[in-house]
Amino acid sequence: MRHYYSLFTIPPVVRGEEDLYNLYCGSAGFLPPTCFNWHCPKLHLSPYFPRFHLSYFPSLPELWLVLMGTVLDAATKDANGSLLTDKKVTVVFVLGGPGSGKGTQCANIVEHYGYTHLSAGDLLRAEIKSGSENGTMIQNMIKEGKIVPSEVTIKLLQRAMNESGNDKFLIDGFPRNEENRAAFELVTGMEPTFVLFFDCLEEEMERRLLSRNQGREDDNIETIRKRFRVYMESSLPVIEYYNSKGKVRKIDAAKPVEEVFEAVKEVFAPSNAEVMHYRNFLCSIL
Ligand SMILES: Nc1ncnc2c1ncn2[C@@H]1O[C@H](COP(=O)(O)OP(=O)(O)O)[C@@H](O)[C@H]1O
Ligand SMILES: Nc1ccn([C@@H]2O[C@H](COP(=O)(O)OP(=O)(O)O)[C@@H](O)[C@H]2O)c(=O)n1
Fold first, then answer.
1. Best probe residue, ligand 2, of 171, 176, 220, 231 (max atoms within 8 Å of C-beta)
2. Ligand 2 atom with the shortest distance to the CA of 172
3. For residue 128, is it within any domain?
4. Which residues are noted in the entry as a ribonucleoside 5'-phosphate-binding (predicted)?
5. How far is the CA of 99 from the centre of ligand 1 (A)?
6. Is 256 a domain residue?
7. Number of folded domains in the chain?
8. Residue 43 belongs to a domain
9. Which of 117, 118, 147 to mutate for ligand 2's pocket (most ligand atoms within 8 Å of CB)?
């Protein structure tokens, strides 16, 4: 199967005489030479278009990475009607251990602040139900508490973002490891505005998961323990990464639902006292 891509906004000096370049890729997972002799390995910084930064997942030939809004996948644009690269998008990552209350609080945030809630876990479970070719692989990973390869999850997230028509997203349960994080930034060119981190002790999370009662195959003690291990080893480092960039808003998630939401509200709409504090601070330095 061939995929065609259009390059836009190439400065005339490097664009030559053509208006449009059709790059095509074969199933072998690389680009054959184009008129500019473009080979595209996994990550490619073109010597001809140094502003462009193309990446390519060989296992997903249709997934071209669009960075800096300069390269558009025309096929995707046609299919979705709109492209996220056209808009200014707000992304909030919602992270925390399994059972910390991410989904519960996201529902509250949606109701009050007009975000679209995208749960990576829900999207993966829907993909299993849809009978997709990845279904069995995803199901096995979830049963083992393992993290599904990034390209699968990111594709689902991107599709859901495009279909939502919204420009404000709560991305719940993603990124769950360093690979998730780096691939998302690379694929979408987006960074979270901030990361909402639900901090909760393991014993409390375990209690909640064991009484969640949603018929989830992974809410059994054996898988729960595996999920906790993956969380400690792979997900906490991602939270630490964002913390080092000053992006983490930590919430004590061990409290009752209503109290947790009071703390969440402070993040999304700081109370007057806090606004006044910053106003006074700004006045003092101006
Ligand atoms: N603050 C809380 N106190 C007690 N139970 C909670 C709290 N927040 C969520 N729960 C319950 O704990 C379970 C896990 O919550 P959920 O929002 O599904 O967590 P996550 O999305 O982080 O896995 C659910 O049954 C939910 O009703
Ligand atoms: N980014 C993600 C999110 C979830 N998942 C999978 O989906 C499972 C359930 O995730 P979830 O976010 O719905 O639920 P919690 O574990 O947070 O309760 C995880 O244990 C992973 O197996 C994933 O592989 N990658």
1. 176
2. 12
3. yes
4. 125, 146-148, 173-176, 216, 227
5. 5
6. yes
7. 1
8. no
9. 147
* Exposure class string for 89-124: b at 16+ Cβ within 10 A, else e: bebbbbbbbbbbbbbebbebbeeeeebbbbbbbebb
Instruction: Write the CATH number for 129.
Output: 3.40.50.300
CB 105 within 8 A of CB 198: yes
Residue with CA at minimum distance from ligand 1 atom 5? 208
256: phi then psi, degrees, rounded to nearest 5? -60, 155
What are the pLDDT tens digits along the chain (286 aa)?
233 333 322 222 233 333 233 333 332 333 333 323 233 332 233 333 322 334 343 444 333 333 222 333 333 333 333 445 556 899 999 999 999 999 999 999 999 999 999 999 999 999 999 999 999 999 999 999 999 999 999 999 999 999 999 999 999 999 999 999 999 998 888 999 999 999 999 999 999 999 999 999 999 999 999 999 999 999 999 999 999 999 999 999 999 999 999 999 999 987 766 666 766 777 777 6
- Could you tell me the maximum CA-CA distance found in the chain, to the nearest angstrom? 66
DSSP assignment string, 40-66? --SEEE-SS-TT-EEEB-TT-TT-B--
**Token reading at 57:** 């997942």
Give the domain range for residue 132: 90-279
Distance in angstroms (rounded) separating the CA atoms of residues 43 and 36: 17
Whether complex ipTM tops 0.90: yes
Beta-bridge mates of residue 252: 199
What is the residue type of 164? S
- Using the mean position of ligand 2's atoms as its centre, give its distance from the Cα of residue 236 in Å: 14
User: 234 among the known binding-site residues?
Assistant: no
Domain membership of residue 139 (yes or no) is: yes
